[in-house]
Amino acid sequence: MRILVLGAYGLIGQEIARWLSATGHEVTGLGRSARLGRRLMPGIGWIEADLARMRAPADWVAHIEGFDAIVNAAGALQDGAKDDVAAVQQHAIVALIAACEAAKVGRFVQISAPGVAPDSDTPFMRTKAIADAALRASRLDWTILRPGLVIGPNAYGGTVLLRMLAAIPFAQILVLGNRTVRIVGLGEVAQAVLDAIAGAIPSRQSFDLVSSERYRLSEVVTQMRAWLGLPPARFSLLLPDGVGFALARLADLTGWAGWRSPLRSTALKVVARGIDGDPEPWAEATGRRLPGLEETLATMPATRQERSFAKTQLVFPLLVGTLVTFWLVSGLIGLWQLREAMVVLPGWIPPWVAAALVIGGAVIDIAIGIGFLLRRLLPAAAVASIAVSLSYLAAATWLTPGLWADPLGPLVKIFPAMALALAVLAQSDER
Fold it and tell me: What per-residue confidence (pLDDT) applies to 429?
């Protein structure tokens, strides 16, 4: 079959596309960047399209022509600089469903979430519910799959957060640790899509893809810690819910700078309510129950790469915050202490030239700090910070070589700053 997968380089979409392709289907992915898609999954075709702009059935006609089935694995957790939840999860999908009816597309598989409702307290759950309702009301041969807390070898979103929490040294520090969740393995979600595409399960039905067992969030993190091969926590600390939501509101603000922190208000609200579902309809339709957490983790052995990733992601926000502060404060101090900075330069430099050099350097520093703050500009800011640091070293060696012998080591300290920027650059990939 020719199958179009929306969100094919996301956590769930990428696995679905891989399984469909491996079983002989002709798969095409649709995403905002076909170039990124081809880099991550070169074995399938790609269509470049921004769901946020595809609000009418006519916007979809050219993209769905010739496809036998559509799998919607696209989504957005929360509004931000890169994401418009209503546009991506509601308007685009409702328009797509209408276009598929007109084009007589054979099957439509929707990846939703357990507990969605049109009156939910989060746009994520509301918009998923509206799209699900539009699909149920359509004439399409549809299946709605609602995965619980997804556990998989790939790390994105909530799976990153679990790894980060498990990697905290010595302690297990949590909010909402007593809330219960049901999990599902990433491979089980992909297999469910294959079953729906093949007609191995009843169509025009919705299924929760969840384990029979419920787990406290603290249990999940404890097992993730053991899975990573990290030492057990020496003590546990359950923080008040308010602390978690305060941190989430700070993370929400970073979303408007392009960051997709897994610790945002929507994620915490979903966990606070509990991630639940009914495993029985799926068991009855397929004759099999979905594996629990221990069995799921056993199918994806952790290696040194997983341990390193968990630790680096834990410190990554601190590294970025340090560079943002370093460059912004450096530039602001240069402007504030303009005359004192000019005195450091040789006396033979005219005052107006010295002032221009100091002001210019301060403006560049501030620009680099802002670049580190904005997710889209982070790689460029890291490269620029290293290049500017090298130019500062060269200029200082020529103009003020005595600074190399300064007991405070102002020039020597540039090298750790460059190393820090290089470390951030190495971790700058989002997917």
Answer: 83
Contacts of 231 (CB under 8 A, 6+ apart): none
Q: 164, 260, 179, 191: which is closest to 216 by C-alpha?
A: 179
Considering its fold, how many domains does the chain have in total? 2
Claim to verify: residue 77 and residue 143 sit in the same structural domain: yes
| Domain end (from 280, 302, 324) | 302
CA atoms within 13 A on the CB side of 332: 8
Q: What's the pLDDT tens digit per position in 403-426?
A: 888 787 788 889 999 999 999 999
Q: Do residues 236 and 288 both lie within one domain?
A: yes
Domain-located, residue 293: yes
pLDDT of residue 157: 72
The answer to whether 119 touches 86, Cβ cutoff 8 Å, is: no
Unique residue bearing structure tokens 């982070």: 378
Which residue, 387, 389, 431, is CA-closest to 37?
431
pTM of this structure:
0.90
Last residue of a domain, one of 302, 335, 367: 302
CB 361 within 8 A of CB 353: no
Exposure b/e, 2-32, CB count within 10 A at least 16 = b: ebbbbbbbbbbbbbbbbbbbeeebebbbbbb
| C-alpha 119: how far from chain center | 26
- Residue 213: what residue type? E
Helix axes 378-399, 304-336, angle to 10 degrees: 50
Q: Which of the residues in the chain have pLDDT under 50?
A: none
Q: Does the CA dihedral 403-409-412-415 come out positive or negative?
A: negative
Q: Which candidate, 79, 13, 71, places its Cα nearest to that of 52?
A: 79
Same domain, 298 and 320: no
Question: Is 339 found in the same domain as 249?
Answer: no
Same domain, 268 and 357: no
Question: Which ranges constitute the DSSP H helices of 27-174?
Answer: 34-40, 61-64, 85-86, 92-103, 123-136, 158-166
- Under 8 Å between Cβ of 397 and 293: no
- pLDDT tens digits along 256-292: 888 888 888 999 999 999 999 999 999 999 999 999 9
Residue span of the structural domain in which 338 resides: 316-426
Nearest to 416 by CA among 274, 289, 319, 299: 319
The residue to which tokens 């629990």 are assigned: 292
**Could you tell me the CATH number of the domain that includes residue 202?**
3.40.50.720
* Length of the chain in terms of residues written: 431
